[in-house]
Amino acid sequence: MNEAQLIIRKATINDSSLIADFGARTFREAYAASNSPEELAEYVSFNFNDAHIEAQLKNPAATFLLAYMSGELVGYAMLLADVSPAETADSNPVELVRIYVDGKRIGEGFGSSLMAACLKHSEAAGHDVIWLGVWEHNEQAIAFYNRWGFRKVGLKAFLLGNEVQRDLIMSREIFQDF
What we know:
Number of helices: 5
Shape: globular
Helix content: 25-40%
CATH architecture: 3-Layer(aba) Sandwich
CATH class: Alpha Beta
Strand order of the largest sheet: 1-2-3-4-5-7-6
Low-confidence stretches: none
Number of domains: 1
Radius of gyration: 15 Å
Mean pLDDT: 93
């Protein structure tokens, strides 16, 4: 990847449709093979519609970062600074709600570039810990987070449609080397 061509910027309200479409597509790419089509469709229709994404973009506690390579959206991340589990009860935690990369572009370094941008943004906003939930069966994502210094600190339920799944809660200090 030529970093000179990579641009990461904060999303605006005008990006809601772009994020909804990209999020729905990448979520399906990542989870369709391991989940029922009905549960997946219900989750995607609720979480990746324009109105839902627009409401999230209007939330002052949320930040979306969009990654572009040569003008093409290749990934995005969402940070949320309003709720945290007891396992991350530090002074000012932030949640990494989503970090998605186009399935065709996984392995090209875009996930790492987005993670670095998330850490930099979180540090600038005064957060001391970043945490996330990751499906216990998503070994590729868990390995990625481990490489970035995240460690398992707990478990939480995740609702995919009407199916309750289990997520690992992982966290790391913002200020550690990466």
